Amino acid sequence: MNEYSFRPAWWLPGAHLQTIWPTFFRIPTKELSIKRERFELPDGDFLDIDWAGQGNGPIVIILHGLEGSIESPYARGMLAAIERKGWRGAFMHFRCCSGELNRLPRTYHSGETGDISIVVDALQKREPGVPFAAIGFSLGGNVLLKWLGETGRLNTLKAAVAISVPFDLDKSVECLNQGFSRLYQWHLLKELHRKMLWKFREQSAPIALPPLSALHSIRDFDENVTAPLHGFSCAEEYYAKSSSRQFLQTIRIPTLVVHAKDDPFLTGDFLPDEDELSRYIQLELTEKGGHVGFVSGRFPWSATYWLEERVPRFLREYL
């Protein structure tokens, strides 16, 4: 173990405590000044981008996880870490995740790479010569890796980082439907149900929505809502086409992938093998850390968040 390796807090010994602690007990990051930009999309919809940092420095785009937002503790923590480096952070909300409903019936999903492609292209044209990088958390990490693989040598980012990625969506929903991980599934389903009810309260749904209370798993939701709403025939097709695992070989920019073997959203049993990775990928596996957790520190009141040290340290080599 070198000086930069993750050392889990002794008072958070398991994967679930590592996963839950930052959400419920992390002291909020207060030193951030956020400015929101409404980004209009070619299809008539919009995205909201929250900016942190000043000046003309490098830009780091952040993609959040399922039902995440600027209020997610990891979002504000990473933006603060980016700002401290003198860089600018651009937190890109997926459609319907900024607190306002998007205009079109579609929302977002694990394989939707069109929006990040449009945003990066527009921002690079707006700021020529500025180095760009990206960080993706969980679902956002899957989107990022898939896009990097799709674009290959044409991708214009200097570097990327993907954290706690559900590389294989079919296996990930299987993990979420077992044991204590059902608690995460229940929470996410509640948020997804709430959003669908909110979204289609004032506009008609383009698909036949079943009673949401009858959907008891993420797989049920994807089969009956996510897949048909976004043009897939079924959940299996959605998972097969959207999982980032199949795109890892064609990534051609320096990419750090961080994953804990005890991640309850996708355990070490289902991670990609070395021969599935492009030579541009640095896969950093830790024994502990949970899902987007990686909490260190001697005591609860002095908790530190290792990702906010590790990720900037990787990116500074390229920015």
| Range of strand content | 15-25%
Tally of contiguous helical segments: 9
Q: Tell me the series of helices and strands, N- to C-terminal.
A: HEEEHEHEHEHHHHEEEEH
| CA-based shape | globular
Kindly state the percentage of residues in helix. Answer: 25-40%
DSSP strand tally: 10
Largest sheet: 8 strands, mixed
Output the radius of gyration.
Answer: 19 Å
Entry keywords:
single chain; 319 residues; alpha/beta; eight-stranded mixed sheet; two-stranded antiparallel sheet; 10 strands; globular
Please explain how this structure is put together.
The structure is a single chain. This protein has 319 residues and is an alpha/beta fold. The chain has nine helices and ten strands. It has helices at residues 15-25, 73-84, 114-126, 139-151, 169-176, 182-199, 218-229, 235-242, 307-315; strands spanning 35-40, 46-52, 59-63, 88-92, 132-137, 159-163, 255-260, 281-286, 295-296, 304-305. The strands form two sheets. The chain has an eight-stranded mixed β-sheet, with helices on both faces. A hairpin with a 5-residue loop joins strand 1 (35-40) and strand 2 (46-52). Helix 7 crosses helix 8 (235-242). The mean pLDDT is 95.
Describe this structure in a few short sentences.
The protein is built from 9 helices and 10 strands. With 319 residues, it is an alpha/beta fold.
Write the layout of secondary structure elements.
Elements: H1 15-25, E1 35-40, E2 46-52, E3 59-63, H2 73-84, E4 88-92, H3 114-126, E5 132-137, H4 139-151, E6 159-163, H5 169-176, H6 182-199, H7 218-229, H8 235-242, E7 255-260, E8 281-286, E9 295-296, E10 304-305, H9 307-315
Parallel strand pairs: 3-4, 3-5, 5-6, 6-7, 7-8
Antiparallel strand pairs: 1-2, 2-4, 9-10
